[in-house]
Amino acid sequence: MSASDSSSSSISSMSRRTLLRSIAVGGAAIAAPSVLTACSTGSSGGGDVSNAGKKAAPWPTYTAVKGPAPDLAPDIKGVQAGYTKYPEKLVQAMSEKPGTGKEKIKVLSITYGTPPKPLGSNKYWQAVNEALGVDIEFTVVPDADYRAKMSTLMSGDDLPDVINFGGGYFLPREQQFVKSRCADLSDHLSGDHVKDYPNLANIPTYAWEGMGRIAGRIYGLPIERAKVQGAMFINREAFDEAGYKPGMAAEDFAAMAKDASKGKKFALGASTVGIFGYLYHAMWHGAPNEWQIKNGKVTPMYGTDEFKAALEFMSNMRKDGSYTPDATSISQVDLKTQFYNGTVRSMTDGWGAVLSNAQGIKDEFTLDCAVPYTVGGATTVYQQNRGCFGYTVLKKASKERIKLILRVLDWLASPFGSKEYQLMHYGLEGRHFTFDKNGDPVPTSTGLVESKTNLPFAYLMDAPQVLYNPGYPDLTKRLHAWQRKVAPQLVPNDHWGLQSSTYNRQQATMQQIIEDGVTAVVAGRKKVSDWDAVHDKWLAQGGSKTIQEFEKEWEAAH
After folding, report:
1. In 3D, which of 395, 390, 392, 39 has the Cα closest to residue 183?
2. What are the pLDDT digits (tens) for 492-537?
């Protein structure tokens, strides 16, 4: 995973509207819904994409592939496999090349890097093409241009063979476009059919569920991300000195944060993207993970008593001086700098930011993650990720061409510890990377340019992620131990995989109402008692209709 991607969206306390501004420095994975319009309405534009009343194609049968044994064991609750060192002996994931050397495939993906060097002078691109036996013609779309480019693409006639809907953008009528213009992959991937592509079968079921079906069918392939959404990253020494204890009571956490906020140092860093870390505090108070569905009843977090209790808790910590006074004006990029230099002692960030944060700190302090505090009478929960950075779809084509492209994606999904993974993620030894004294791959200056950051094969398809932080084995151990503590608290956002035309259309407006309201209350411009009016506005602007549509979708799936 590059430093630019972080796992991927609910949103790790970061605004969907502005989150992708920080991804280049390792922000969270799920991001801004667009306000563009694309595709026609009616049957020609995909028509009904609801899963209600449709027979659901079974998810692909999960079958783990064998690779080098991890140093730290995973579990199904959400703990990733951990590697404290790079595997000494790599496995060969593929017995043959996907193509014959004569085929060409056009692909399109979002990127957070710079434009790649042309194929003729790009040895990384050439090496991957050679390994695939296919000439990949790559169109990379910078984040800043993504919505405009996708609008043009979705309304036009000239489609590439492979399209990545990446970075967590939710484009209006996206599902209608996919249903009408892209290949139904159910007969290739559903159930045991996926066993023709062993590395795709290695993608865990939760990633497919997070992507969701369209009209009961499987149209895409998810790019997997860890179950844990993000974390409150902490300066462990500063927190410990102020009396921090993992899992401490909420009132003790607040007292600790106040004590750690002295001499122009602040316990809690926040930014215009982080919105005071409200999703963390809400869930640690027992609120749902945004959307909870039990026995067909939909409960959004925003109207719960637990959410309002969290608002009061955050507001009081802001009054105590525990939050940085720049919380409503500073960018996530600048907040990271303040965290690295010790001005703030914590910040919420996406899980994909782990390595870049460790590198930014430069051993000035110990990077760790906060274990949720506890609230009397509440059940503390933790935010489970959607399970995917985005998903990849294929243009309609002949059965044999679809199989070719799926073989290519199967190669790109080769697991950590395989020769194929090493080539895609690190390039050619000697040119793009070298091994350091500990056996970890270290990029060369050329490798920083000719790389998967600037030529994002990994956003078309990738292996399930593992805990591996080259040069930081102790960090990997801490993170693994932390995951073991919080994994039992993980709860999903139950709306993932469900379709709601109102939510697809109104999500940006609805989210803005919530974020503006949270900012106003915690910053002291509004009272906690004013929140009910904010929530009523959210219901009127699409919340009520969305609840009804999610209930209908859930009923159809159960």
Report:
1. 395
2. 999 987 878 898 788 889 999 999 999 999 999 999 999 999 999 9
Choose among 81, 202, 88, 87: nearest CA to 467.
Answer: 81
At residue 168's C-alpha, the angle toward residues 164 and 170, to 5°, is 90
Side-by-side strand order, sheet with 346-350: 346-350, 230-235, 367-369
Q: Are 28 and 19 in contact (CB under 8 A)?
A: yes
pLDDT band at 439 (very low <50, low <70, confident <90, very high): very high
- 263 strand-pairing partners: none
Closest to 138 in 3D by CA, of 156, 113, 169 = 113
Ramachandran region of residue 482, left (φ > 0), alpha (ψ -120 to 50) or beta? alpha
Positive or negative: CA dihedral 183, 189, 191, 196: positive
Read off the tokens for 85: 């060192």
- DSSP states of 427-494: -SBTTTEEE-TTS-EEE-TTTTTSSTTTS-GGGT--PPP-EE-TT-HHHHHHHHHHHHHHGGGEE--T
Bridge partners (DSSP) of residue 350 are 230
In sequence order, what are the residues at sequence separation of 6 or more whose Cβ sits closer than 8 angstroms to the Cβ of residue 468?
82, 83, 86, 416, 476
pLDDT tens, position by position, 532-554: 999 999 999 999 999 999 998 88
With contact defined as beta carbons under 8 Å apart, do 300 and 39 qualify? no
Domains along the chain? 60-227+390-483 (3.40.190.10), 230-383+496-557 (3.40.190.10)
Q: Could you tell me if 193 and 222 are in contact, meaning their C-beta atoms sit under 8 angstroms apart?
A: no
pTM attached to this predicted model: 0.85
Q: What average pLDDT score do residues 299-328 get? A: 97
